[in-house]
Amino acid sequence: VQLQASGGGLAQAGGSLRLSCAASGRTFGIYAIGWFRQAPGKEREFVASISWSGRNPYYADSVKGRFTISRDNAKNTLYLQMNSLKPEDTAVYYCAIRPSAINEYTSWGQGTLVTVSS
Fold first, then answer.
1. Which of 68, 92, 87 shows the shortest CA–CA distance to 14?
2. Which of 64, 89, 116, 118 is 20 to 30 A from 80 (CA-CA)?
């Protein structure tokens, strides 16, 4: 599976951005797909995930109520709607797939940079 993330950019605090992650290749049987982020000088952290069928969204506490994860099954595309952005949301955002019920992610996309100014 190949993943291509896009949609990053510069936003002001309180603003919004929508990230996209297009999936291609053998996607049959994938368990879930998720977003992660890595801020400068910090470890990569989980942001949100959703089942491959588009159900059961799950969020990190830091983004709950502000970010919404969704999938367009027809387009094989994952989205992350980010509202009420904060400077601490600044990071490179990555999408990745979870092939099975085991909590491990693979096929990391190249990442898209989100910068939130105060």
1. 87
2. 118
